[in-house]
Amino acid sequence: MAVVLRELEPADLPAVVELNNDAVPAVPMADEDELALLTAFASLSIVAVDEDDPDEVLGFLIAIDPGRSYASENYRWFSARSDDFLYVDRIVIGTEARGAGIGRLLYGAVFAKAEVDHRREVTCEVNLRPPNPRSLGFHEALGFRRVGEQDTKGGAIRVALLAAALDGGDES
Q1: Taking Cα atoms as reference points, which of 82, 87, 91, 73 lies closest to residue 151?
Q2: What's the pLDDT tens digit per position in 60-81?
Q3: Edge-to-edge strand order for the sheet containing 53-64?
Q4: What secondary structure letter does DSSP report for 15?
Q5: How many helices (H) and strands (E) does the chain have?
Q6: Domains by residue range for the chain, with CATH
Q7: What is the pTM of this model?
Q8: Cα–Cα distance measured from residue 3 to residue 121, given in angstroms and rounded to the nearest whole number
């Protein structure tokens, strides 16, 4: 299977919502309206599809530039720390497509955009409670380092706040 990336389109939203909600609690539950609003607000909204079946969404990624009025506790944490980042709000790969390199492909697009926009780092968070060790390992392999931790959702979730520096910069 050859995987290609393309911009997330409104017709993709039902599949994106299904992938998103199948990945809870790694990502927050969302409906079509919420994800449509988020993708319209985002600076990068892409899907990974099978080249032979471009309507089948295998995974997606949504990233947001600094300086937006976004209520996410984690985005606000990074915004208080810096104004020179590209924040990955969520990345989800369908269960059957995991292990095929799609996550690396999606992150390749994020790092490329961050580089073009002259950002210092790419940021994201990964759950510590409930634990998500597979995602932590994946992000560490991509060069992300823990720059903080915080409780969110009224203490129900604890996240590791991660950053990957571009151009060999310091991620602190």
Answers
A1: 73
A2: 999 999 999 999 999 999 999 9
A3: 3-7, 44-50, 53-64, 85-93, 121-129, 157-165, 145-152
A4: H
A5: 5, 7
A6: 3-122 (3.40.630.30)
A7: 0.93
A8: 26
